Amino acid sequence: MKAMFAGFAAMIVISVGAYYGLHEIGFSSQDRYSGDNVRLE
């Protein structure tokens, strides 16, 4: 049971870290796949 909770905690930490890390370096799908003529809000 402890291993399962440790796995869940690791999954949460990795996913939150990846979310904020990718947004900080500008690697979101909005930044990659939109041109200059597209207005995103």
Q: Explain this structure to me?
A:
The protein is mainly alpha-helical and 41 residues long. Helix content is 68%, strand content 0%. The protein contains 2 helices and no strands. The protein has helices at 2-24, 29-33. The protein is rod-shaped and about 50 Å long. The model has no long low-confidence stretch (mean pLDDT 83).
Query: Average pLDDT, to the nearest integer?
Result: 83
Largest sheet: none
Strand proportion, as a percent range, falls in: under 5%
Helix content: 55-70%
The secondary-structure class comes to: mainly alpha
Distance from first to last alpha carbon: 44 Å
Number of strands: 0
The oligomeric status of these chains comes to single chain
Produce the secondary structure layout.
Layout: H1 2-24, H2 29-33
Keywords:
41 residues; mainly alpha
In short:
The chain is mainly α and 41 residues long. It has helices at 2-24, 29-33.
